[in-house]
Amino acid sequence: MNESALDTYISKLKHSFDEDAFHSLVEAGEEAIDPVLLAITTQCSVSQFKRLVEVLQEIRTEGALAGLRRLCLLEYSEKWEAAAEGLFYNNPTAATRILNELLEQASPSDREAKSRLVVELIAAQGNQGMAFVCCEQDEREYVPKPSGEGEDGTVEMWTDHAEPFQV
């Protein structure tokens, strides 16, 4: 698909949900990733951001995963939530690992806000048995610890300062 066609589909999708444009971008695969990321990083409302992230989440390639990871570097916001959800939708196992790494680098206040959503996403995806950095409202440093799956299917997660809890 040529660049002009990609730009037309992106424009249509940015301004309203156009099913044909959406499917055309997904079918373009790797070819669509850079133009979609460029559109996302330029002037883009939250709803436009979400529609374009949905394209990336449907393209199951390393390039799309890397693009979604870059979007998860944003500060906590509705856009970050959309990027994290897209990352989980694209590849739950990789998303858990990637977000775990990014949370370790985040500021304490940002880490706390993001951690809540990530715990919900892990629970919703059934991605059990993955280690995760958990945070409370204070600014203590938390270290990922191995987690284990209970007999009832719940996941226990640890920090270095708290008792295990279940999600």
List the helices and strands and how they pair.
Elements: H1 3-15, H2 19-28, H3 30-41, H4 46-58, H5 62-71, H6 78-90, H7 92-105, H8 108-125, E1 148-149, E2 155-157, E3 165-166
Helix pairs in contact: 1-2, 1-3, 1-4, 2-4, 3-4, 4-6, 5-6, 6-7, 6-8, 7-8
Quick description:
The protein is mainly alpha-helical and 167 residues long.
Question: What does the model show?
Answer:
It is a single chain. A hairpin with a 5-residue loop joins strand 1 (148-149) and strand 2 (155-157). The protein is mainly alpha-helical. The protein has a 3-stranded antiparallel β-sheet with strand order 1-2-3, with no helix packed on it. It is built from 8 helices and 3 strands; from the N terminus they run H-H-H-H-H-H-H-H-E-E-E. The termini are far apart. The relative contact order is 0.08.
Annotation keywords:
mainly alpha, 3-stranded antiparallel sheet, globular, disordered C terminus
- Cα shape: globular
Strand content bin: under 5%
Total beta strand runs: 3
Computed Rg: 17 Å
Largest sheet: 3 strands, antiparallel
In oligomeric terms, what are we looking at? Answer: single chain
Poorly predicted runs: 127-167
Distance between the termini: 44 Å
What is the count of DSSP helices, taking H or I runs of 4+ residues?
A: 8
State the helical fraction.
55-70%
Strand order, main sheet: write it out: 1-2-3
What structural category do the secondary elements indicate?
Answer: mainly alpha
Mean pLDDT: 79
H/E topology pattern: HHHHHHHHEEE
